[in-house]
Amino acid sequence: MRARQEIPIYNFQQRTVHWIHTVAFILLLGTGLLVFVPSLSFLMGGSAISRYIHRIFAVVYMIVPFFFLFTDPEGVRSSLRTIFTWSGDDWQWLKAMPSFYFLGRGEEKMPPQEKLATGQKAWYLLVFLASFLIIISGLVMWIGRELVGVGVHQTMLTIHDLSMISLGIMFFVHVYLGVFHPVMASGTLFRNPMISGMTDAEYARKHHTKWYERVTKEK
Amino acid sequence: MAINVDALESPIENTIPSTRKGVKKAMLVDVSICIGCRGCHVACKQWNDLPGEKTTQTGSFENPPDRSVITWTVVKFSEYDDNGRVRWMTRQEKCQHCTDAACVRACPTAALYHDPLGFVAVDRDKCIGCRLCVIYCPFDIPRVEDNKVAKCTMCQDRVVAGRTPACAKTCPPNALTWGDREDIIAKGKARVEALKKRGFPKAMLYGDNILGGLGVMYVLTHDDPTLFYLPKEPKIPATMGFWKNIMQPVGGVLFGATVAGLIINYIVARATKSEVVRSPEKEE
């Protein structure tokens, strides 16, 4: 059996932030759903504890990404540039994607991808925009409650819920594509690049060709 | 020692079957009779065992200035220009006990619910302090402190025993009256007609057809309820309808469709994937 070649893809801080964010996200989604879906609310048993969990992890969710501003400002800038720059390759990818994702066929039609493939870019963009809306609306409802009118409060709640519905649904797609999809997954639930920081070289060459060629050439 | 409202209950009243099954009850608040004595405020605190509040004199008649978790009813004061004449009105403010109540619809834990008589009751043990009732109540009634909601319960514990709510029981000029809903509406309408003949041509009955019929209705001396700090057309907020009727069902369907779609995707993609894309590990 040929030895699997692995190349580094995510550094320690990126992985740490990813998992802290994941835990915060799941707890925020869970405690929020208890109020959003009344049939689940019996789980709270009249306790306000979910309110405290929601607030504590809201702070975690808000603060953690900002660490990157201090440790890797250039990375933040280039990430933001990446998710807001959409080129012909991306549209090409979107066109070729259904066959590959749904049938596992037609990989040759997929245009070469960067470190973030178009689909990942779309998810990254959604996380960025929805989190922005969630944080703003959440802060208004939490801290600005006395300052705004009840109409603003209602609107913020609606924005908060809509953002979370879109994030919550796409979260499942994200997990699925990351570790469950028969041909796209880059690892398993307990053994994947977001845990080890290393990705399979062959996988990277196929799915992130542009990035793979650049990093291997630099070596 | 506070006055014991119970002891003042007339023995005659107790023999009247005022909670006959199926008969809806209601309260009428007549601002043209109210003298602003705040007896209702005190009786409410006495019956419901609510402590007093330390307040500051701000130059207004309204004291305390607002309701709170320990003050379920206050007397609001308003003055308006009635064709060059100053009208000075006082109005008891408390929960309106809507038939179609936004707070009951919003409450995720059923801490706010309609009691068997149709009034909006509170089960504080179930309350988780989410404040959705505060956000959606068109009358800004519920108050939340220490993660528990509180508001007027229409003296549920008195009413089920066939007694009059404490505020109406105590009201010295009988500005607050309690009775069968039909009678109360008829009484309100008759009072409005009488007021129209006595210098209040714009008098109106407020609440008989609002939100499925309010449990607390007002006889107002003017047809603009905002003069009395009452909303002109209170209704279930649109954002709440959006949440309950669109976001929740559509969100649920989308979630279900996503999970189902992913499972189908997994089965199909696994079955149809071409050899080429198999991982190198499996090829060997």
User: Termini distance of chain A?
Assistant: 25 Å
- Separation of the first and last Cα atoms of chain B: 92 Å
Number of distinct helices of chain B: 10
Radius of gyration of chain A: 20 Å
Largest pleated sheet of chain A: 2 strands, antiparallel
The count of strands of chain B amounts to 10
Dominant shape of chain B: elongated
Biggest sheet details of chain B: 4 strands, mixed
What percent strand of chain B? 15-25%
Structural class of chain B: alpha+beta
Strands of the largest sheet of chain B, in order across it? 8-1-10-9
In N-to-C order, the SSE pattern of chain A is EHHHHHHHHEHH
Query: Which regions of chain A are unreliable across 5 or more consecutive residues at pLDDT < 50?
Result: none
Which percent bin holds the helix content of chain A? 55-70%
Feature tags:
heterodimer, A: 219 residues, two-stranded antiparallel ribbon, 10 helices, 2 strands, B: 284 residues, alpha+beta, two-stranded antiparallel sheet, 33% helix, elongated
Summarize, please:
The complex is a heterodimer of chains A (219) and B (284). Chain A is mainly α and 219 residues long.
Structure report:
The complex is a heterodimer of chains A (219) and B (284). Chain A contains ten helices and two strands, in the order E-H-H-H-H-H-H-H-H-E-H-H. With 219 residues, chain A is mainly α. The relative contact order of chain A is 0.13. Chain B has 284 residues and is α+β, with helices and mostly antiparallel strands. The interface between A and B is large, with 45 and 45 residues.
